[in-house]
Design a protein that fits this description.
- The protein has about 220 residues and is mainly α.
- It contains ten helices and no strands.
- Helix 2 runs antiparallel to helix 6 and helix 3 runs parallel beside helix 8.
- The protein is globular, with a radius of gyration of 20 Å.
- The termini are far apart.
């Protein structure tokens, strides 16, 4: 009778409490991961040795407009979402929070942390930033609540035009890098190191931090 009463009390379409708890934990994981990601990008900004392609573009626009680089990144993310429409991509909650949180946390990090005035400290900030971005990626991707706006753009290009993933990413990122550089964005050794290191580091982070990855490895 106790089970029957619990079943009867449950409203149609409601989620079991375990599912609600799991979704809540995934959402908190998402928010934490995006915040960590934003801190990492902020560290690469204050290092002053070169940025990843999308942040180069945000930096170039920020220098031209006087708007903070983090706020510029938020606007860029929103504009990228508009491009999703003809590509027939659907954003998830993770996509929207990605747009809102990463740039905001980046801006707060840049505003609060002093810029290092010695090369050694700049290198430390740059490398720390790349590692922190990878850790943030492993945390928020592991929440599985929707791709970031730029990742969804690559997926949309592949689905819409049949482009291989590498071709879509290379085309888009080289284009935004060139535009950012022309606008005065920071391009340097940090840009190269980010491109070389971020893929392997995110791979390691996902193996360590994504519950689905860990579960898949335990399956014989």
């Amino acid at each position: 009778m106790a089970n029957s009463g619990a079943t009867a009390a449950r409203t149609p379409g409601s989620l079991p409490s375990a599912s609600v708890a799991a979704l809540t934990l995934r959402t908190l994981r998402l928010i934490l991961g995006l915040a960590v990601f934003g801190i990492g990008v902020g560290l690469t900004v204050i290092a002053g040795l070169g940025l990843d392609p999308w942040t180069v573009l945000a930096d170039g626009i920020a220098r031209r407009t006087g708007i903070g680089i983090g706020w510029t990144s938020v606007v860029l993310g929103a504009l990228v979402l508009l491009v999703w429409i003809p590509l027939r991509q659907r954003p998830g909650v993770g996509t929207v929070l990605n747009v809102l949180l990463v740039g905001t946390v980046m801006q707060v990090t840049v505003d609060l942390l002093p810029r290092p005035d010695h090369l050694a400290l700049q290198v430390v900030a740059l490398l720390a930033g790349i590692v922190v971005v990878a850790v943030g990626s492993g945390i928020y991707i592991g929440a599985h609540l929707g791709p970031g706006p730029r990742d969804g753009l690559m997926t949309g290009l592949r689905q819409r035009f049949g482009w291989p993933h590498w071709r879509g990413r290379a085309t888009v990122e080289l284009t935004v890098l060139a535009l950012g550089w022309l606008l005065g964005g920071s391009v340097g050794i940090g840009t190269v190191l980010f491109a070389v290191l971020i893929g392997p580091l995110v791979h390691v982070a996902l193996r360590l931090l994504d519950p689905r990855e860990r579960a898949a490895r335990r399956v014989p």
